[in-house]
């Protein structure tokens, strides 16, 4: 792993974009301790403004923000600074959004809660030509499926019939899934 002293000759500007203030503050402090020059934003609009005024070398962006999708920030960052390294964080992970994030230029996609060590490893992984270690406790396939169903259900304003139609499943099957507790 690249250590902080070895990074001193590099541009260590880092933009953190997240609307969870306590998480943002903790991550900001942790990344400053690792030698980064940290700037923060709590919305897509604020993140876009920071990227347009002074594109950072690194970014950690939450996927879902109150005013939109954090992938807009990643996309704009890659347009303004192609060598920038962005990591996307999300509490609503699924394969489709991970693929989209990578296509837009993100170097990694981490599920929340991610700690500062995970974020640092993801940002620096390419520097060492090694991949970040897999998570210690990844979500099971059943849990990923359940999370996806819950997300679609919420996006459909908790309408079971509409959710079942969009997921191409029988309404009663969906009702049984929704009635159960989340798998581990």
Automatic annotation (TrEMBL):
Keyword DNA repair applies: no
SMART domains linked to this entry: REC (SM00448)
Stretches that traverse the bilayer: none
Ranges for domain Response regulatory: 13-127
Keyword terms of this UniProt record: DNA-binding, Phosphoprotein, Transcription, Transcription regulation, Two-component regulatory system
GO aspect biological process, one term: phosphorelay signal transduction system
Pfam family, one: Response_reg
Protein name (Swiss-Prot/TrEMBL): Acid tolerance regulatory protein ActR
Naturally occurring in which organism (per UniProt): Maritalea myrionectae
């Amino acid at each position: 792993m690249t250590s902080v002293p070895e990074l001193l000759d590099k541009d260590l500007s880092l933009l953190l974009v997240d609307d969870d203030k306590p998480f943002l503050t903790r991550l900001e402090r942790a990344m400053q301790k690792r030698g980064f020059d940290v700037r923060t934003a709590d919305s897509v609009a604020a993140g876009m403004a920071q990227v347009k005024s002074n594109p950072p070398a690194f970014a950690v962006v939450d996927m879902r923000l109150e005013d939109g999708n954090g992938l807009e920030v990643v996309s704009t960052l890659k347009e303004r600074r192609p060598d920038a390294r962005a990591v996307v964080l999300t509490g609503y992970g699924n394969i489709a959004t991970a693929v989209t994030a990578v296509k837009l230029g993100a170097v990694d996609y981490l599920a929340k809660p991610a700690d500062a060590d995970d974020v640092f490893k993801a940002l620096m992984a390419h520097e060492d030509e090694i991949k970040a270690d897999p998570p210690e406790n990844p979500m099971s396939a059943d849990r990923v499926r359940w999370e996806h169903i819950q997300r679609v259900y919420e996006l459909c304003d908790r309408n079971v019939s509409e959710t079942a139609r969009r997921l191409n499943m029988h309404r009663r099957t969906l009702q049984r899934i929704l009635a159960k507790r989340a798998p581990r």
